[in-house]
Amino acid sequence: MSNIVAIVGRPNVGKSTFFNRLIQRREAIVDAVSGVTRDRHYGKSDWNGKEFSLIDTGGYVLGSDDVFEAEIDKQVELAIDEADAIIFMVDVESGVTGMDEDVANLLRKVNKPVFLVVNKVDNAKRAEDAVEFYSLGLGDYYSIASISGSGTGELLDDLVKALPEKETVVEEALPRFAVVGRPNAGKSSFINALMGEDRYIVTDIAGTTRDSIDTKYSSFGFEFNLVDTAGIRRKAKVKEDLEFYSVMRSVRAIEHCDVCLIVLDANRGFDGQVQNIFWLAERNRKGIVVLVNKWDLVEKDHKSVKEYEKAIKKQMEPFTDVPIIFMSALTKQRIYKAIETAVEVYKNRTKKIKTSKLNEILLPIIENYPPPAYKAKYVKIKYIMQLPTPQPQFAFFCNLPQYVKDPYKRFLENKLREHFDFTGVPISVYMRKK
Question: Model confidence over 119-159: pLDDT tens digits?
């Protein structure tokens, strides 16, 4: 379980530049997702072998100080509530502002590591000016220049040392199915319907994060942990910014699950936030099942399912091999079909194809439809194998891997799906030098 580090501060101090530098400088990055709610960013990075998730809480340009104060207080409180450590960024060019003091007042009450970072310190004069930030009462500060990366090494060294060690639960290695989605889509109703009807539930286990619950669940002869990411913490605070809180929770759940059950409200459709959660799951190479909830409330005819499914898959392109279940948590319509499908997706994700079978089926196809010639050079694929990874990854060994472009890789992926059934699972295709 990776730690979460929140980057907070007022607008225009360089938080996003710093965020982008951190997620781009390490090879272990999974991905960054922007725009889930307004201009917040979510990404993953590591330093000195320690992995952590980053959240850039974004800035605001609002009309009055009063409105700004309410908004920044809300965002900072939500971020620090979820984070294991906080980076508080300020700007040496403008010095200490009233907005900085507002944030500092909140952070002084926090019992978590807080790192005061003075940005844009790129010369000796600015290094002297940075001294005034001692007045914020947060102790020592770090002088950096996020554009050039100057000073970030020392900050990150101390940051990873301060991050708490996460407990790893090894007593059971059950698959984890995470129920994620935007607020009010019916996640809680779906899980409650399952728990109320199925008598194979064994016990509740305290979640590995403070805001998820793992329920050991058995169905269709298959045992797994069902991870509820619905709102189970302070309701008053959740109301302040439900979207932000929901996505922070979903980021954690997606990173540490095997299959994501993405619940969406049939009346709202596959909107922007649902799409971002979908792509976060895809880029983390998780199994995916889309559950269209509240289907009983939609006016429909004999074409409705096909048209709705077509519209969703249009938004998923190019990864459209995803099961879509139309259900109702309220009436319990197809809720068990949803779980049965998730079990099948998990089996697809852990499927291992024999090397001999891969080569027997795919090499003749490749011979008939070889990669396009590039600069009068011909690519010859000689051998295929599945890599020993938790999710499906395939290596195609050839003479000139650098000349195989993305369209042909998608062709190979489609052939893998056609012959071996990887429905609901992202596939990685790598070209390797033979």
Answer: 999 888 999 999 999 999 888 999 999 888 888 889 999 99
Euclidean distance between CA atoms 157 and 134, whole angstroms: 21
Which residue is it, tokens 């011979």?
367
Answer yes or no: is pLDDT of 169 > 80: no
CA distances from 208 to 64, 176, 399 (A): 40, 12, 46
Burial class (CB in 10 A: 0-12, 13-18, 19+), 257: buried
230 vs 336: which has the higher pLDDT: 336
| C-beta separation of 145 from 155 below 8 A | no
Between 280 and 409, the more confident residue is 409
- Do 122 and 162 contact (CB within 8 A), yes or no? no
User: What are 278's two structure tokens?
Assistant: 């979908």
Cα of 212 vs its chain's centroid, Å: 15
| 3-state class (DSSP) for residue 183 | coil
The alpha carbon dihedral of 266, 268, 273, 279 has a sign of: positive
Confidence at residue 130, expressed as pLDDT on a 0 to 100 scale: 92
User: Are 80 and 190 in contact, with CB atoms under 8 Å apart?
Assistant: no
Cβ partners under 8 Å of residue 406, min gap 6: none
What are 71's two structure tokens? 């908004």
The pLDDT tens digits of the residues spanning 362-405 come to 999 999 998 888 888 888 999 999 999 888 999 999 998 888 88
Q: How many helices (H) and strands (E) does the chain have?
A: 13, 17
Asked if residue 330 has pLDDT above 90, the reply is no
Listed residue (379, 385, 386) closest to 401, CA to CA: 379
The token pair at 176 is 């984890």
Tokens coding 404: 């195989």
- Could you tell me how far CA 19 lies from the centroid of its own chain? 15
Closest CA to 193 of 221, 215, 220, 222: 215
Q: Which of 132, 67, 66, 63 is nearest to 94 (CA)?
A: 132
Tokens of 127: 């290094």
Model pLDDT for residues 248-300, shown as the tens digit of each residue: 666 777 878 899 999 998 888 888 778 888 888 888 889 999 999 998 888 87
Q: Where are the beta strands (DSSP E) in 108-221?
A: 114-119, 141-143, 176-180, 204-206, 213-219
Burial 232-248 (b: 16+ CB within 10 A, else e): eeeeeebebbeebbbbb
Place of tokens 């990776």: 2
In three state form, how does the secondary structure of 7-23 look? EECCCCCCHHHHHHHHH
